[in-house]
Amino acid sequence: MITNIPHFKKVLLTQGLKPTYQRLEILAYLEKYKIHPTAEMIYHALIRDIPTISKTTIYNTLNALIRKGIIHEITITGTETRYDYHGIPHHHFLCNQCGKIIDIDVECPYLAKKELGGHRIEELQGYFKGICKECLRSGHKAKV
Amino acid sequence: MITNIPHFKKVLLTQGLKPTYQRLEILAYLEKYKIHPTAEMIYHALIRDIPTISKTTIYNTLNALIRKGIIHEITITGTETRYDYHGIPHHHFLCNQCGKIIDIDVECPYLAKKELGGHRIEELQGYFKGICKECLRSGHKAKV
DNA sequence: GGTATGTTTGTAATCATTACAATTATGTTT
DNA sequence: AAACATAATTGTAATGATTACAAACATACC
Ligand SMILES: [Mn+2]
Ligand SMILES: [Mn+2]
Ligand SMILES: [Zn+2]
Ligand SMILES: [Zn+2]
């Protein structure tokens, strides 16, 4: 995998996490494939490079990265956790047809809010669901 | 349970669902206790009135009600589905401390949108997470 | 009463995730 | 470089939410 390993090493070390081979590969995967993968998807992708890697390590690492705020979890599907390595906060769109999860950069007036109705806001997730642009197009073609 | 059974009967019938005792009780529970309960919570509440009720019936009914658009599902916790019987669309807040899920009536400019970036929008979920008003207060008291 | 259809129920299966304990790797100290 | 303490990895078992399935039951219609 062609990636900026020194950079990921620094990211892990500054958060007090040891830059192990497994963690570096998981981070590299998340940075390269921004598809909001499941733990399962990461596992199947990495087992080629690291045949001994365990699914538990995937979960351990992802949970450690979340605790440190390096990645974020997305529960848009309701059936499994998706993982996102992407700096600035943004919303997401789930296509009910093809299952793709797409980043939505929306000028949400609440993304900056730290307080709402007396409650302290620490996190905001915006989930849109529907039919994506591509599926709309191919659905139209199918009808012709 | 003191509820408007005739009303729920009408709701079910107009959607082509038979108004069985179980379904009426589930709807009555959702309407009375607006706590966004889990299937488990509904099951434990109803088993007093209907000792023979099955957890499968709870899930069957909830899924039927969702398919008909009578109730909505909320996946804010990431670990289990919560169910909401509440007419108008609104956002939600999850307290990371006490676990409560609170309705948030926010003037979201995207709640009315049917299209976004070429994608067709059918649903929008807004999930805020943090510490609720009550927990903030008791946390403050505890420090004194 | 008989039949078709939809609903409920109990049990078993599935799937994502976590718990746990043994093994191994890592960074630091000698 | 060897020894040590600590943290990470691994495999397996357990958990928990949800669904699959088939039998029993209810309801309405002929
Ligand atoms: Mn994203
Ligand atoms: Mn609500
Ligand atoms: Zn699509
Ligand atoms: Zn609270």
Primary descriptors:
DNA-binding; binds manganese (II) ion; 2 domains; alpha+beta; globular; 144 residues; binds zinc ion; Dna Ligase, domain 1
Q: Any overview of this molecule?
A:
2 copies of one chain form a homodimer. Chain A has 144 residues and is an alpha+beta fold. Chain A has 2 domains: 5-74, Winged helix-like DNA-binding domain superfamily/Winged helix DNA-binding domain (Arc Repressor Mutant, subunit A), CATH 1.10.10.10; 88-138, Dna Ligase, domain 1 (2-Layer Sandwich). Helix content of chain A is 38%, strand content 21%. Chain A contains 5 helices and 6 strands, in the order H-H-H-H-E-E-E-E-E-E-H. Chain A has helices spanning 5-14, 21-32, 39-46, 55-67, 133-143, and strands at residues 72-74, 82-84, 91-95, 101-104, 115-116, 119-131. The first copy, chain A, has a 4-stranded mixed beta sheet. Chain A has a two-stranded antiparallel ribbon with strand order 1-2. In chain A, strand 3 (91-95) and strand 4 (101-104) form a beta hairpin. In chain A, helix 1 crosses helix 2. The longest helix of chain A has 13 residues, at 55-67. The mean pLDDT of chain A is 93. The interface between A and B is medium-sized, with 34 and 34 residues. The structure holds manganese (II) ion (2 copies) and zinc ion (2 copies). The structure holds a DNA duplex (30 and 30 nucleotides).
